Amino acid sequence: MHRTPRRLAAAAAALALGAALTACAGQSGTSAPSAPVTTEAASDVAGHNDADTVFAQMMIVHHEGAIEMAALAVERASDPEVVALAERIEAAQAPEIALMSGWLEARGEDVSPRGHEGMDHDGMQMEGMEHGEAMGVLDDLDGDAFDQRFLELMIAHHEGAVVMSEAQLEDGENPDALELARTIIDDQTTEIAEMQGMLTGS
Fold first, then answer.
1. Residue 58 and residue 142: Cα distance in Å, rounded?
2. Which N-terminal stretch is annotated as signal sequence (predicted)?
3. pLDDT tens digits for 47-105?
4. Which end of the chain is more exposed for a tag (fewer CB within 10 A), N or C?
């Protein structure tokens, strides 16, 4: 997809993806209602642009989709290696959701959905399917068939996260958000190779 449509799609997504943010935003390690913003969050507020905000909003929802798929795999997969991979995905992406939620909360962003549901965004589909469709496909499978389809769809899901992170590296400015984008690219590219190996038996 060309650069301009990607930016337009991402901008359209900005307000559509906020429902999940508030639930995760309080994981800063303090229970005080009026606790000051952490140093990391304060740094983020000091230097960011719209691309940084959209990246966090979209990636939170993207990560939540991966965690939902992974949770189903922990219950349903027959291969212990697939179960272990799914558990690692959950463990890695939940803290990243909390981190990005903290950034957005510190910025005071309006993250309520505003009627952009169903739009096509870079990285948000798997093999042309929305998340709900992909979950429906997985829910109908068991055993080896489930394992294979989960790996195929999670590869596509990870590839989407890489696309979104590459867009952040092009357009973002906040050092923390750029660092997270690089981490996502590195970690998920490694997992893509691992899942491809599982599919081919190598």
1. 30
2. 1-25
3. 889 999 989 999 999 999 999 999 999 999 999 999 999 999 999 999 999 999 999 88
4. C
